[in-house]
Amino acid sequence: MGTDRYAYQSKLRRVSPMPKLLLTAVSLLLCLCCDSIAVGLATLVGMGLLTRMLGGLSLRVYLHFLKIPLAFLLIGSITVLFHSYPQGAAVLAAVPVGSRLWGFDAAALQQASTLFCKAMGAVACMYFLTLNTPVTDVTMALEKLHVPRLLVELMELIYRFIFVLAETAANIRIAQESRLGYQGLRRSISSLGTLISMVFLRAWRKADRVYTALESRGYANHLTTLSSGYRSGRWLYPATAGVALGQLLVFCLERSVVG
User: Fold this and answer.
1) Cα–Cα distance measured from residue 248 to residue 250, given in angstroms and rounded to the nearest whole number
2) CA torsion angle for 132, 134, 135, 141 (degrees, to 10)?
3) Between 20 and 30 A from 111 (CA), which of 41, 94, 128, 214?
4) Taking the domains of the chain in order of start, what are their residue ranges?
């Protein structure tokens, strides 16, 4: 998995996950609560710089990861942007359809822009965590924060089965392609349906075997994971305060300019 590979290669890999979780949570909370275009953009840029400078991730790879949610966010923002208006309404751009106008006004543009910038800032916050902290470190940090153990173990098992499903689907697809299973639309749809059903069945059997293996090794409703040695990472606490102060400063400046 791409994010996991870069997380293990990050310069922050051996830093304790607790300050990284705190930095992510504080910046994410402020980005969402400020409800501001400027704060969203500042969070996007700031967290991207931290991921690049502290984690050592290349700009090309970071921009590649940003392209993944970009399409979904653009589609979601467009659906919020366009509305139906009566004839004669004050709109910025519209197309007449029957007796109504379909387009957007200043309020809709503001709402869509705010939603998009907030979402991109939130994505940058989560990328800082996922691109610098392996999932096993995150789950151990959640245990220390007294998150219910059942929830943490479900997260670990679900994460594990992402790889199982991906590997199973890839092997089945290779076998289908070697038998010309995707030649033509009709055959492709049939092969895809077979692939989906086989992935479900094999994943179910794999899960049953994994649970049997856990019980044979003394599983007692708790998965024990040994933590590796971490550096304290206390220097990230001032960084967290700096990021939060920067977000609040941008918010106040925007309000003073708009007001």
Assistant:
1) 5
2) -80
3) 128
4) 2-133+230-258, 148-216
Look over the chain and give the mean of its residue pLDDT values, rounded to a whole number. Answer: 86
Query: Treating both helix axes as pointing N-terminal to C-terminal, what angle do 59-81 and 106-130 enclose, rounded to 10 degrees?
Result: 150
Residue 128 has pLDDT above 90, yes or no: yes
Q: Is 222 exposed, middle or buried (0-12, 13-18, 19+ CB in 10 A)?
A: exposed
- Alpha helices (runs of H) in 131-228, residue ranges in sequence order: 135-144, 149-178, 185-216
| Of the candidates 176, 206, 200, 203, the residue with the CA atom closest to the CA atom of residue 190 | 176
Read off the pLDDT of residues 41-66 as tens digits, 9 standing for 90 and up. Answer: 999 999 999 999 998 989 899 998 88
The span from the CA of 153 to the CA of 139, in Å, is: 8
Residue 243: both structure tokens together: 């990021």
pLDDT band at 244 (very low <50, low <70, confident <90, very high): very high
Residue pair 199/168 in contact (Cβ under 8 Å)? The answer is yes
Which residue intervals of 35-58 are DSSP H helices? 37-53
**DSSP code of residue 174:** H
